[in-house]
Amino acid sequence: MQLRARELRRAMTPAEKKLWTHLRFEQLDGAHFRRQHAVGPYIVDFFCAKAKLVVEVDGDIHAEPEQAKYDAERTQWLNEQKEYRVIRFWNNEVLNSIEGVLDAIHQALMREQ
Questions:
Q1: Within a domain: 80
Q2: Which one of 19, 48, 80, 108 is most buried, counting C-beta atoms within 10 A?
Q3: How many domains does the chain have?
Q4: Running DSSP on this structure, what letter comes out for residue 1?
């Protein structure tokens, strides 16, 4: 699992890279995020342990019915088994409206304090 997470860190999408530039080094509310982090049987895009927050950045494939079903099951597992909150953004939201995305993450972080 760790090897796969490392591979995913090296192959981040443009949207993931853009969001990471705003999350790394505790730039957003001092929250420490990890990228492509293993949580149980899954690898999540971004994870803040202190806030119990998972942030996912989804491409077009996530609109496909089978992938959407898998995502829902995964989110349910993260909610129920780990008590993590999961928020999702589309690639185009991150690429075109980063301020709105950062505000939504900020709001989620504030709810956990």
A1: yes
A2: 19
A3: 1
A4: -
Q: Is the pLDDT of residue 55 over 60?
A: yes
CATH of the domain at 92: 3.40.960.10
Say what the pTM is.
0.90
Separation between Cα atoms, residue 108 and residue 88, nearest integer Å: 12
For residue 106, pLDDT over 70 is answered with: yes
> Looking up tokens 């898998």, which residue turns up?
70
What does the alpha-carbon distance between residue 16 and residue 11 come to, in Å, rounded to a whole number? Answer: 10
Residue 113 lies inside a defined structural domain of this protein:
no
pLDDT value, residue 6:
65
Rounded to a whole number, what is the distance in angstroms from the first to the last CA of the chain? Answer: 30
